Structures are given as C-alpha cells and as structure tokens.
C-alpha cells in the first residue's frame, strides 16, 4: 500500500471531483489500491440498496397503515369488503382482486366481491365462482397460497370463455374471531412475473386487519337489524293500544318482517279449526298474494332444528324463493327452554302430519323465506317479534269476543222483550178476537175475525222463530245451514221449498247429529227432485220432547216404501246408528212424507 501523505505537506490542489474508484489527474488516491476501491464501491452500493429497501418498506408500511385506516372508515359491510379488495390490490401491485365470502356451511362461496373487472366483464363472464378448483383449496385448507402460474396448478378449474387471462396468484384467508370469514384472492402481479414474499406478508397483515374491520361491520349491521326489529315490535305494540283488526294487524306484521329481514316472501299461517292436526291456513302472504287460503302441514318439531331451504319441501304450491327460510310460532307464552324456535318445514296437506294435538300446537306460524346475506342472528329476533305478533292476535280476538258479547247481550234483550211483551200482547189480542167472534152479527165478520186470529197465530210463530234465532250461537248455526240447504235445492227442484223450524234446534241438537241431519235433508231433497215430480215441498225441522225431527213432504206422484233404494236405505241406517227411526208414508193429498227422527240424548 502507498504511504499516506504527511499532514504538514499539502499535496497538489485537486482539479476535478473526488473519485474513489479511479482518481482524476492530479487527484489523490487516498492510499487505496484499485481492488480496495472496487470493494468500497460495492459496499457503498449495497448500503444504498439497503437504504432504498428500508425506505420502500417504510412506504409500504405507511401504505398498509393507510389501508387499515381506510377499510375501517365506514361500518357498512359491503363497502368495507370492497375497500379491502381495492387496498390489497394496491399494496401487492395486483391487477385483479376478489374477496370470496363463505356460505354458512363453510363449504362454498356465497358472495364474491371483485376489483379490476368492469361491469361489461362481469356480464360476459356470467355466474361468479362458488369455490371450486384452486379457489376451493383455500376453503378446505385455509393457508396462504402463492403461485407463479395459476393455470399449472393441479387443482386449477379453468376460466370461463370471456374471463381475462390470469397467471400469477396470491390467496390469503380472512379470519374473524378464529372463524374463516372468506378468502382474499389476488392475480396478475404488475411489473413482475410473480408475487414476492413481501407481498404475501403485507397481504396477510392486511387480512388480519380486515378481519377486525369485517367483525366491526357485522356487529354494526347486527345492531342495526336489532334496532329495526325492536322498532317493528314497538310499532306492533302501539297497534295493541288502539282498536285491533286482525287482518290489518297480520298484514302489518308480514310487511314489516319482510322489510327488516330483506326476504322475498313472508307467510302468516293460522291454525285451521277444521283440522285436529298441525295444518295451517295461509292468512297473509306478503310477496305472493296467490298463496292466501292454501292449507299447509307444518312439522312443528322442525321449529327447533335450524334454517332450511324451501326447495327441499315437496309439493310446495309456488316457485320457491332462493336462500334459507326461518320460522317462529305465534305464541304469546314464554319461550321454550331449549331456545327460540327458528325453523319449520312446510308441506302441503297430505304429507304426514305432526302427532301433536291441536291443544299442544301454536295458534299460528310466521315464515320468512328467501333470505339474503348473513341472517345467523335473525331467528332469535324473529322469535321475539313473533311473540309481539301473537299478542296482537290475542288482543284482536279479545276485542272480537267483547264486541260479540255486546251483540249477544243486545240480541238477548230484544228476544226477551219480544217474548215478554210483544207475544203476550198479540196473544191477548187473539184471545179477545176469539171471544168476540161468536157474538158477531154477520157470518162474514166472524170469518174475518177467525182469519185475523190465524194471522196472529202465524205472527206469534214467526216471532218465536226469531227469538230462537236471536238466542242461537253466533256464526254458522244449524238453522242457517238448514236454510242454505233448502235454498241450494231450489236450483234442481225449480222452486224454493218452504222451511219451518221450531224449537231450540241450534242449541239442543248435538254436534255429532248435525252432519247426519244435514246429509239426510240433502238426500231427501235430491230424491224429491229426481223422482217425485212435485210442484211444492215443505221441510219441517223441530227440536222438542227429547228428539230432533226432519219431515219432508211433497205433492208429487208418491213412492213405494217397499222399493226403497240406495239413498233411502242410507237415511234409515243413519237414523238407526243414532238410535232413531226413519219412515216413508203417503201424504193425505197425494205425494210422500219422509220422517227422520233421532233422540237428542
């Protein structure tokens, strides 16, 4: 090595810039050999590269921090997912990015948020992937995957015809509370052949921060849904404070449930009193009005089993909405100890009914079908809302019963006044006229007085009939069913038969006798229309002296009792089964009299 210059002997003045590798003319060599100067240049260049890497890493960390702050700036879940994909593409230098959201069963993708594809590309590609092939690898094995060429992987499923070409690939799972929420997919590294280790590390870090942001967004969405359910329940409660009309309350319940759950269809089913098993009538169908009135068999045991897809239900009466379905019973009592009921499996009548009796079944079921998005927390909220809906039904029923009681009390008062005042006055007037008739000077006057007395008797009978009708149970009664049956026979007879009803036939005739009695009357009128050739028919129904009697008299051509055929034999057997009798006799003026009687006991 050259010896250093003495400190007190200045060298020649430099004439150009200092160079460590190759000194200029007249410049000092600083005592370095050419080999040492080359080594020093390499060390300085390495130091500059390291400084550049540090600066680049600091910039990427700053970009990562900016991305973390950015994805958490809004609590809307959809926009949060879109910002995560965009931030991942920017950090890793990817041309395309996507976030696949796992379905509740964790076996496929339920949603796919993309970045880098235009709406035109979306339209050309068609259906988005559901998690097969290489995308499914992250579902079954949630570990980061980095590939130089996606097409060469053995799990590669291929691309649709209009899909843009993709080679380099980076996939990272996104977790929320130790649960896999979805997977972050990046493709086509810009400016390089493949993604680097640093790209993988920074995307993994972003995925961790994204999991927190997603969890916050989901909690915020849950809080909003709970607020909407509580608001709807409060709205139903406000309805309870006023006059409740059942149909209006049910329509409000269905409409609000559909709005809050974002469902395609909401059904309100009420127990059908005509069935003893778990069959329900669709009272309200928000989203498909054509379903109203249908009868469904509901598997009550399935109310506790979890969400189902209505496509699995046989004989469903209409195209079934996509997505899962929830249901909750309309029961105002305390919830089941096993948790809120959440699901039902409806099917048409004819499928195997539940073994539960009507007394053990809920008065109704609220079904929400065609759900979209994450509704894992909605069943409990729906159950609480259904409880409020059941209270609305109970209050509507109580108001209807109270209004009916007022009507019945008024009818009882009218019947009592008719019996105690009007009939007594008419009867007294008739007695007075009967006492005056023998003293009439002219036979025509006596005849007219007797005719007036007969009219008064007929009026008294009509009033008594009205009294029985006023005191009959509300709704469909045997008296009205007899009237409807006689009216229906007018079409085949060509005239309307005369109907006389006497006695407390609505309250005295047992329920098991009513269908037999009506069947006998329909058969008797049908036989008269086919065989009697009559121009008039009188039907008499009477409940008195411990028996109920149906008498059908016509003025037709008569019949031979010994030649009784199918319908007449059936009427005889119906009477015999109930301990009664059936007789066919000729009418005094021609025609036939059918008499069917059974004891009331």
TrEMBL record:
CDD domains: HATPase_UhpB-NarQ-NarX-like (cd16917). Gene3D superfamilies: 1.20.5.1930, 3.30.450.40, Histidine kinase-like ATPase, C-terminal domain (3.30.565.10). Keywords: Kinase, Transferase, Two-component regulatory system. Residues 76-224, 245-403 form the GAF domain. SMART domains: GAF. GO terms for molecular function: phosphorelay sensor kinase activity; protein dimerization activity. Residues 1-26 are annotated as: Disordered. Residues 1-10 have a biased composition (Basic and acidic residues). GO terms for cellular component: membrane. The keyword Cell membrane does not apply. InterPro entries: GAF, GAF-like_dom_sf, HATPase_C_sf, HATPase_dom, Sensor_HK_TwoCompSys, Sig_transdc_His_kin_sub3_dim/P. Residues 16-26 have a biased composition (Low complexity). PANTHER family: NITRATE/NITRITE SENSOR PROTEIN NARX-RELATED, OXYGEN SENSOR HISTIDINE KINASE RESPONSE REGULATOR DOST. This is Histidine kinase.
